[in-house]
Design brief:
Length: 283
């Protein structure tokens, strides 16, 4: 393991813990305090933008905010966050994240089709194993619930978001793209979220901040990690979110996946981490 990877790995693992932690707070808001997922999604964008804007907004090109491609990318993200928060209202966190990982699989196919990125048999085989893992979690046709369907929808939105992020990677620096998605996401979600503000007692205020901070800091750590090491080396560690999600679901809600779902999560995690051993030149 080279020096850059040793420095990037702790940031990547922290990011993969903070993001499920933010979603755990979101589940406590939607399931425990009856907050509307549209409000939670709006507050996540708005608070993230307010916290980050003083540091990066003045360094962000104004042209980003009038580029339709940047708006489309932010729309994919807003749809994904709203869908996953809707799923978390009724489903265990681990199951939601398992279904959500249809996203990287979709992104692989879209990137090969639309962006002409190379594909290999080995990576395709691992993704098929991961897809089978998603099927075990989702259980289409014999146990799939509306909540899990929203988790799949969140993954589809996220796959489109990942592909559009690769498409626009050279448009601006990562921090500029991050603040643009937060600001535009706030504008997209404001008409829905502002109409659904819950009673802002102390627990709701606290959980709203934790939800936003977990998401924003997790994505910031992710960006910092990707500055230190190539995305091809960091991508497999995205699947460690499944470990954090399962642990948080058990610790906070007492939820553990059933046998089939646990097998699906293990297949997903194994297929993701196995790609570490694929030659980087074939990624």
């Amino acid at each position: 393991m080279n020096a850059d990877l040793r420095r990037a790995l702790p940031l990547m693992l922290l990011a993969m813990t903070l993001i499920p932690a933010g979603d755990t707070a979101g589940k406590l808001l939607t399931a425990g305090h009856d907050a509307d997922p549209l409000f939670v999604a709006f507050s996540r964008f708005a608070l993230g933008a307010l916290l980050l804007a003083p540091f990066v907004l003045h360094l962000t090109p104004a042209r980003l905010f009038v580029d339709w491609r940047v708006w489309l990318r932010a729309l994919f993200l807003a749809g994904g966050i709203t869908s996953i928060l809707t799923a978390l209202r009724t489903e265990p966190i681990a199951n939601v994240f398992g279904a959500f990982f249809i996203g990287p699989i979709l992104s692989y196919g879209l990137s090969a089709w639309l962006l002409k990125e190379g594909i290999t048999r080995a990576r395709t085989g691992l993704l098929l194993i991961g897809f089978f893992g998603v099927i075990l979690v989702v259980k289409p046709g014999f146990g799939m619930t509306p909540g899990v369907a929203f988790a799949v929808l969140a993954g589809l939105f996220y796959g489109a978001f990942l592909t559009s992020s690769r498409w626009l990677a050279d448009l601006a620096r990562p921090r500029a793209l991050l603040i643009s998605q937060l600001v535009i996401g706030t504008l997209i979600m404001a008409p829905f979220g502002l109409l659904r503000i819950p009673d802002m007692d102390l627990p709701v205020v606290g959980l709203t901040f934790v939800s936003a901070l977990g998401s924003m800091l997790g994505n910031l750590c992710l960006i910092l990690a990707l500055r230190l090491a190539p995305a091809s080396q960091m991508a497999p560690f995205v699947y460690t979110q499944l470990v954090a999600a399962t642990a948080l679901g058990w610790a906070v809600f007492g939820d553990l996946p059933d046998g089939l779902s646990m097998l699906g999560l293990v297949l997903l995690l194994s297929s993701g981490l196995a790609s570490l051993w694929l030659p980087s030149s074939k990624k």
